[in-house]
Structures are given as structure tokens and as C-alpha cells.
Amino acid sequence: MSYIISFANQKGGVGKTTSAVNIATMLAVLRKKVLLIDLDPQGSATSGVGIQKNSAFKTSYDVIIGACSIKEAIVKTKYDNLSVVCSNVDLAAADFELTSQDNRAYFLKNQLDLLKEEDLFDYILIDCPPTLGMTTINALSASNGIIIPIQCEFFALEGLSQLMFTIKKIKEKYNRRLHILGILVTMYQPRLKLASSVYAELQKYYEPQLFKTKISRCVALSEAPSFGKPIYYYARYSRASLEYQDVAKEIIERTFGG
Q: Is the pLDDT confidence value at 258 over 60?
């Protein structure tokens, strides 16, 4: 049975897509069958695994509006065990088109329920847009768990509190099984006093939910997307690559007990 994880944060620029792409890749490297669903109109997760955003594939937009089944939209990447459902700017219209639909929060869930019955993937990872529209609600309604990437900066704490409230409301209204799989600290710079101070606050209030591993700020991690490569295939032994591998192992422990 597939375990579905959404990567979400209403604040942009926190390493959400970077984390979705690289955790998906690391789970695949660890011999898990992985499907990455790009649900962000920017399509960065699509290009991050080496696929052109304007390629003639069915996309997550087609899936969300019911123009095709999710199986028709799955594209195999050049990386072992990793497939993707692509996205492009068309997805920006999905929120508007879903507004008038019945059961509009469950379009993606209904598709993924059918996919799970075939047991094709161990993990399905969803990269959400940095907004709380109907596409994000569709992702969270379909998910078992949510991973929240967060930077160690002052406003991140305030935003995290608001996001926790939002998740609580979505859980009550749409998906009672939804839980926070983990909070992932990204772009961490231990030498910065502010980063250490904010991390101490995160530990104070969210210790059980924090991943043990923090993702360091890394030049190679910033460069890899421009080459259409996850960090493992761009700089395998870089600090960020090894850190994402540790996070992937912890996800396996938290979901399937290793």
C-alpha cells in the first residue's frame, strides 16, 4: 500500500520543492518505488528531475480536472525507481475550475485510491504550491502525512503556527487520518546566531515532529536544478546529499518501520 506524503508550506522559498525532489530521489536510491506528483504551476519539481515543463505529457492539471487518469499522466524519469506526474503553468487555472465542482476536495484522492489498489509505488510524494487553494486541499485530502520544510528565521515560526492551525482545520473537515510526518529544517547555517536561536525555539515547541537531520545551505544544492538533476546525481557526496539520504531513511522508519 502506497504511503502518500505532501510537502507543504504557505510561505515560499523554504526549500519545499528542493526537499520533495531530493527526498523522492533518495527514497528511490534506497530501492523504494516512488511517484513524485508536481502540483505546483511553476513546474520546478518537473524540471528538477530532468523533464522539460512543456513536454507533450499529460499533467497534474489534466488529472485534477478529470481529463485523464493519473496512470495516463505518469512519466518514468531516467532515474531508477522514480516516476513523475508533471506540471506546467496550466495548473494555475485548476483552483478556479474546481470551485464549482461537487466533491472538489477529493478529485486527486479518488485518482490515488485507484492507483494504490495496484500497489505500483511504495511512496507517492506531492509537491504542493505555496498557497492554500483547492489544489493544495486536494493534496492534503489524499495524503497520509505532511512534511513541512522550514527555514530557521524569525517569520518562519509565526508562519508555522498559522500552518499548524490550517492543517488542523483541514484534518477536521477533509481528512481525519492526516498527520504531520515531520518538520524539516532547511538552508541551515549553524554559525548564524539567529539560526541557532530559532532552532532552539522549534525544539521547545515541536521537538517530537522535527526530523533529526537538518539540511545545510549548500552551493551544490542550489546548482543542481539548473542541470535538471537531484543533488544525489549532481554531487553525490556533498553534505546536502548525505543529509537528504539520512532524512529519507528516517521517513522509512517513521512510515513503514524501516
A: no
- Say if residue 3 is exposed, middle or buried (CB neighbours under 10 Å; 0-12, 13-18, 19+): buried
pLDDT in tens, 125-158: 999 998 888 899 999 999 999 999 998 777 777 7
Inter-residue long-range contacts of 114-120, CB under 8 Å, 24+ positions, other chains counted: 114/69, 114/70, 115/2, 115/35, 115/70, 115/71, 116/1, 116/2, 119/1, 119/2, 120/2, 120/33, 120/35
Return d(Cα 56, Cα 227) in angstroms, integer: 20
Q: Which of 89, 96, 95, 93 is nearest to 43 (CA)?
A: 89
Choices 3.40.50.300, 3.30.70.260, 3.40.190.10, 3.40.50.450: CATH for 3-256: 3.40.50.300
Q: What is the pLDDT of residue 200?
A: 86
